[in-house]
Design a protein that fits this description.
The protein is an all-alpha fold. It is built from twelve helices and two strands. The termini are far apart.
Length: about 350
């Protein structure tokens, strides 16, 4: 796939323009988006992502088109899981509803910047060291295990990292609208809003660790990796407000993502064996008998796994909230109930 520097520049510029427009048109003035607004913009961004994928298929061939769609589906599913953690963070910090848009917007921008850096690093490693596929594959298998059997109840707002941040930075107990810092008695303090953004940035860094190896297991094209990530993050803010309470009903999402990560991990290990150069494996010769999993099979497997996990979750939680969802829902409701002109107090 030939991508000229001009195409890269145009793609990055258009991506930046979308986020600038999002900020000035929707986020700059604090408000809680309506369901209609969230639905319209979610549909727009999903439609735009699908049209872009068709364009890649038409211009560069459907092998690349399939890689894009498989990558987009994987990154979108991981982004929804990311949203659930965002919800836990904002509930832990009691962020008022009308300010949640700004927190999400900043979090999404941080995620895109971090993933951009990881994409560049990943592309360099893959181009120069074929053995990196072994590392990516092993990493995804470990992450799949942790995703399936690890605890998802921990609140990042109370983690060791945030405890360290609180010790280093003087923090006010109350929100001061959407300001990040405030001066009191001649001394500069940070507000809980800044703490929330730091926590979400830390979460983004953790999610980038499994996000980028996962999509590099589906394509080696850095351009597809970047655009799939960019489109997965576009509209994520609106999706948060659109599906809202549905997040807590996706009780099998973690298991579904674990299956996807494990599948891509195995795919990467197979590919690493197929292009092997390590001298202590088969004398440094490729194992050509090892099968390469085709992209059409990857696309079908990922789509089917997401569908099964979603349907099973909705059936499981039909008529009530999912396990562990009550606390999150109650916290979100408390934040929503804040009076617009009052300050919210962060829990201690």
């Amino acid at each position: 796939m030939q991508v000229t520097p001009l195409v890269w520049i145009i793609t990055i510029a258009v991506t930046i323009l979308f986020f600038v427009y999002e900020f000035f048109a929707h986020v700059r003035k604090p408000h809680e988006p309506s369901i209609g607004e969230s639905a319209r913009w979610s549909a727009f961004y999903i439609g735009l992502a699908l049209v872009f994928g068709v364009g890649i298929g038409a211009v560069s061939g459907w092998t690349y088109g399939g890689e894009y769609f498989a990558g987009y589906l994987t990154e979108k599913a991981l982004s929804v899981d990311n949203l659930f953690v965002f919800l836990i963070v904002m509930t832990g910090f009691a962020v008022p509803k009308k300010y949640q848009q700004k927190v999400l917007m900043v979090g999404i921008i941080i995620a895109l910047i971090l993933r951009g850096g990881f994409i560049a690093i990943g592309a360099t490693l893959i181009e120069n060291f074929s053995w990196v596929f072994y590392i990516f594959g092993a990493l995804l298998l470990v992450l799949a295990y942790r995703q399936a059997f690890g605890s998802h109840d921990a609140n990042p707002a109370d983690g060791k990292f945030m405890q360290l941040v609180r010790r280093v930075l003087p923090v006010t107990p109350d929100y001061h609208r959407d300001r990040l810092t405030v001066k009191q008695d001649g001394k500069r303090f940070v507000t809980p809003m800044l703490l929330t953004i730091i926590a979400i940035g830390f979460v983004d860094l953790i999610f980038a660790v499994d996000s980028i190896p996962a999509i590099y297991g589906l394509t080696s094209e850095a351009y597809i990796v970047f655009t799939a990530n960019a489109f997965a993050l576009m509209g994520l803010r609106q999706l948060f407000f659109l599906i809202g309470g549905l997040l807590e009903r996706l009780v099998y999402l973690a298991q579904g993502l674990a299956v996807i990560l494990a599948f891509i991990g195995v795919k990467l290990v197979f590919h690493a064996l197929h292009v092997n150069e390590l001298p202590f494996i088969n004398g440094g010769q490729p194992l050509l008998w090892v099968p390469e999993i085709p992209i059409w099979l990857s696309l079908l497997f990922i789509a089917a796994t997401i569908l099964v996990a979603t349907v099973a979750s909705l059936v499981k939680t039909r008529g009530g909230s999912g396990d562990g969802g009550h606390a999150v829902h109650a916290g979100a409701g408390a934040a929503e109930g804040e009076d617009e002109d009052s300050t919210a107090r962060i829990p201690r």
